[in-house]
Amino acid sequence: MHVLVLHNRYASAQPSGENKVVDQEVALLREAGHRVEVFERRSDDIATLSLLAKVALPLLVPWNPAVRSELAARLRTSRPDVVHVHNVFPLLSPAVLAACADAGVPVVATLHNYTQVCPPGTLQRDGRPCTECVGSAPLPAVRHGCYRNSRLATVPLAVSLSVNRRRWWSGVERFFCISAAQRDVLVRAGMPAERLAVKHNFVPDPDARRAGDGEHLLYLGRLAEAKGVRLLMAAWDEIAAGGGVGVPLVVAGTGPLEPEVTAWAAGRDDVRYVGLYDAEECRQAIARSVAVVAPSTWLEAFGLVVVEAMAAGVPAVAAGHGAFVELVEDGVTGLLHRPGEPASLASCIRRIAAEPARNQEMGQAARRRYEQGFSPAVGLERLVEGYRTAIAVRSGGGDSAPPIGMESMGGSK
Q1: What is the DSSP-derived secondary structure letter of residue 323?
Q2: Which candidate, 87, 160, 346, 407, has a CA 20 to 30 Å from the CA of 44?
Q3: Cα 103–69–91 angle (5° rounding)?
Q4: Tens of pLDDT along 222-251?
Q5: Whole-angstrom distance, CA of residue 283 vs CA of residue 40
Q6: How deeply is 6 buried, as exposed, middle or buried, from its count of CB atoms within 10 A (0-12, 13-18, 19+)?
Q7: pLDDT tens digits, residue range 345-363?
Q8: Which domains can be identified in the chain, with CATH numbers?
Q9: Are 239 and 346 in contact (CB under 8 A)?
Q10: pTM for this one?
């Protein structure tokens, strides 16, 4: 199969699970013998633009005619069987859909977040879940300045959502939702249910697996409010006040809360802030963990670090909402805490660190869960089936996939 992957890469200064997923899927398809080309833009390149180009960039977020022309020419020469769209913000824009429609090429799109119904894609405002814009015009997002706390910066996203909503819904043959929780939100928002398939992200089998009880608790991800970083700091302070759990907390990542985390960790024996790890350092840190902690306050559409922990035979402590409730079986493959509650998070961390034998059982169950639902073999099967369905729909062959999304191919829940 000949696949053209479209992606606007996020800035390299901060960890991006989305960039990682795209790279892993491209590699997986190529290893399986499929021909894969990539059409991409990089947010890192914005820094090199002229002042005039930077000023004009927000105007191109809803529609970039130059990208449409460039992609149309690429499609005419390469003639892929299917186009797989990931992120189009800010340099690609939904104009890519028009180019695909003109060329008659079927399109699938992975929905990595909630940008189809929420301008910043987080379904969160002021640290709390928010659905004000779901199913309606995104005016509340502009009023509250939901993207980067700026009304001006939010406007291009809100305009793009409003003017391109129907283009997305009619121009994509198959949407890949990365969790059933995400799909439920999007169906309630009015997206066409028959086009929404659940396809969890896969994770490569790591070289490193846990041996022994683990050396630390691990937070691995972006240092941001929505990821529950402040919640974790409050919970850990409560744990420390009670005498600790016998192992330190390692915090790895960068983001807007980095100065706050650095100051909080300074001079402490029970916390190590290690900055941004590379891929190998991430694998090793996970494999040495008592548990991975994922305390997000926003409704995560997936939760890649939880599945990476599963692959290494490590349980997770995660917030009991969003996709985490289908990734983590509470008490079996990890523990779920009450979202937004430091005391509940602290209690779960104490529990998972206090019983090494039970922790080992959960780690083994997590590994089995990974093998059944998140391995490369499962990921490849779901990808190719989605592509074939999109091609069949575009050619008039009908929708051959299950309406909720490929549950028959290996445990999507």
Answers
A1: T
A2: 160
A3: 115
A4: 999 889 999 999 999 999 999 999 999 999
A5: 27
A6: buried
A7: 999 999 999 999 999 999 9
A8: 2-202+378-409 (3.40.50.2000), 216-373 (3.40.50.2000)
A9: yes
A10: 0.84
